Amino acid sequence: MNNPLSQGNGDPSPYEPELGSLPNGGAAGTDDETVNKTGTTTIGITTDEGVVIATDMRASLGGRFVSNKNVQKVEQIHPTGALTLVGSVGGAQSFISTLRAEVNLYESRRDEPMPIEALATLAGNFARGGPFRAINPILGGVDSEGSHVYSIDPAGGVMADDYTVTGSGMQLAYGLLEQEYEDDLSLADAKSVAARAIKSAVERDTGSGNGVFLAEVTGEGVDIQGHEEFDAVI
């Protein structure tokens, strides 16, 4: 039986939806040349005293042109927690704003800080089901259970570890961390190790560079400082 809505002469039926054409690659074919990306090397290290998070400071267009040399890629999102920016800048900034709002809402409803594990689970759920583009951040925080570092993958996977690295320079940074990390690192030593790992990545990864931001997370709060010269912290 013929479809009464189709026209036999090949012309589209006036009753059917009009379909437009998609650019090459469909929705995934966004022009990466015009999207600000962090490129990036980000590191999280746990210690008995707290957590250290380190990032480089470079943003690029399409991975080839340096669009900004002083990007703060770690932000406080919790009274004792911080998150890194990895991937497209817009997606990462939106992700951070959303998590901050949820942390504040949790605290106002329950009159207590959100546990870092719960925040990591929430971040994974948002990464998997939300509109955030190509993010792979590190979440570090301190709560009554101790120090925590989680990597959040673009599909929403949440993995806890003593130390972790994400971003385009991760292989270079991991090489140094595997040699230098110890279970009894002090917070000061962890900052030095993290800065040296960022420097190692910056030497070879074109998506990373221009200095280091260091976040020190303890039970007292989050302290974030930028350093254009690695010698100041190594």
TrEMBL record:
> Protein name, please?
Proteasome subunit beta
Main EC class the enzyme belongs to: hydrolase
Where in the cell does this protein reside?
Answer: Cytoplasm
Query: How is the activity of this chain controlled?
Result: The formation of the proteasomal ATPase PAN-20S proteasome complex, via the docking of the C-termini of PAN into the intersubunit pockets in the alpha-rings, triggers opening of the gate for substrate entry. Interconversion between the open-gate and close-gate conformations leads to a dynamic regulation of the 20S proteasome proteolysis activity.
Q: Which Gene3D superfamilies does this UniProt record tie to the protein?
A: Glutamine Phosphoribosylpyrophosphate, subunit 1, domain 1
The UniProt keyword set, sorted, is: Autocatalytic cleavage, Cytoplasm, Hydrolase, Protease, Proteasome, Threonine protease, Zymogen
What HAMAP family would the database entry show?
Proteasome_B_A
Specify the superkingdom: Archaea
Where composition is biased (Polar residues), the residues are 1-10
Q: Which reaction does it catalyse?
A: Cleavage of peptide bonds with very broad specificity
**One Pfam family here:** Proteasome
Q: Which organism is it from?
A: Natrinema thermotolerans
Active site (UniProt): T40 (nucleophile)
Q: Which InterPro entries match?
A: Ntn_hydrolases_N, Pept_T1A_Psome_bsu_arc, Pept_T1A_subB, Proteasome_sua/b, Proteasome_suB-type
Q: Does the keyword Hydrolase apply?
A: yes
GO CC list: cytoplasm; proteasome core complex, beta-subunit complex
Q: What is the lineage of its organism?
A: Archaea, Methanobacteriati, Methanobacteriota, Stenosarchaea group, Halobacteria
Q: Which family does it belong to?
A: Belongs to the peptidase T1B family.
State whether keyword Hydrolase applies: yes
Role: Component of the proteasome core, a large protease complex with broad specificity involved in protein degradation.
EC numbers for this chain: 3.4.25.1
PANTHER family named among the record's database cross-references: ATP-DEPENDENT PROTEASE SUBUNIT HSLV (PTHR32194:SF0), METALLOPROTEASE TLDD (PTHR32194)
Propeptide intervals in chain numbering = 1-39
For the region Disordered, what residue ranges are annotated?
1-41
Oligomeric and partner information = The 20S proteasome core is composed of 14 alpha and 14 beta subunits that assemble into four stacked heptameric rings, resulting in a barrel-shaped structure. The two inner rings, each composed of seven catalytic beta subunits, are sandwiched by two outer rings, each composed of seven alpha subunits. The catalytic chamber with the active sites is on the inside of the barrel. Has a gated structure, the ends of the cylinder being occluded by the N-termini of the alpha-subunits. Is capped at one or both ends by the proteasome regulatory ATPase, PAN.
- State one molecular function term (GO): threonine-type endopeptidase activity
Please cite one Gene Ontology biological process associated with this protein. proteasomal protein catabolic process
